[in-house]
Amino acid sequence: MNHEIGDPNVHVTLEMVRDAFVRIGAKPDDVVMFHGSLSSMGTVDGGVTTVYDGVLAATAPHGTVAMPSLWYDGTKERENPSLFDVNTSPVYVGALAEGLRLDPRSVRSNHWTHAVGAIGERAEELCADHGKFGPRPSPWSDTAFAHGSPWQKLIDWNALYCFIGVTMRVCTIKHCIEGMLLEHVLEHVPEDKRLEYRNLQMHDCKKQAYAWPFFNGERLQQILTDEGSFVTTKLGSATLGGIRTKTLVARALEIIEGDMESWLNADFIAWRQKCLEA
Ligand SMILES: CC(C)(COP(=O)(O)OP(=O)(O)OC[C@H]1O[C@@H](n2cnc3c(N)ncnc32)[C@H](O)[C@@H]1OP(=O)(O)O)[C@@H](O)C(=O)NCCC(=O)NCCS
Fold first, then answer.
1. Does ligand 1 come within 6 angstroms of the Cβ of 1?
2. N or C: which end of the chain has fewer CB within 10 A?
3. What is the pLDDT of residues 241-253, one digit of tens each?
């Protein structure tokens, strides 16, 4: 996972975090999700807590700050979902996300591959009942990005989705969009055959080739930046970027569905063709 190299001589305070998030559009009572590299900002005075508190200050008085709280890292040791304990299993996606899990104010959704952690006004609501309804296909299970998952709530609530010192290469909510691409194709299949066609998709989170519509997040980021919907500012020595989730999802679907061959792999295109002929 690549990140920008920070300048340790640059010191970052809570006020700097607050002001940077306000510059990219954080508002009172907002829900802000971010992916981040701690070192990319420089030296964060007060450590990880300064970052969460800075986001909460940008969204005061009733804001919420959220991060991915992922435990499943693709290794053999973590392939068994029953080994995941929502209260104790560490997060593998960096010091900021693990720090948020360990913050006594935080809550975490209960999902072995794609949990979300959050602090603030809507944290409990965001993290409740992960995957309890509305299954949506994904290579990691149909619950990870379900219609009843924190990822879908971030879209429904039009959260501000951000990146500190990292790019949309690590954009987890992208898998929700990929699931939607698949759902849209399945809509062409007669209802009584949908399960059969859905099952033609390999359902396996191991790193094997399968017809999943993965797309290039950095390519999409460039387009969204050029059209002005993905905005950036400086946070210490890092780039802070962000976009509203509804814009991200709507534009991603429009752009990719308008030019599938150039975005999606041949296996997915072939599977789609079968569905269209079903
Ligand atoms: C992997 C990743 C986290 C690495 O970034 P990083 O800055 O090197 O590491 P972390 O964010 O874990 O922060 C730890 C580093 O911060 C530095 N650090 C410690 N305290 C610090 C402080 N107060 N201020 C600034 N830096 C500090 C340390 O150098 C530490 O590195 P060390 O472990 O070598 O001592 C980042 O590249 C990334 O990809 N983040 C997003 C991940 C994600 O959300 N993925 C989603 C699924 S794909």
1. yes
2. N
3. 999 999 999 999 9
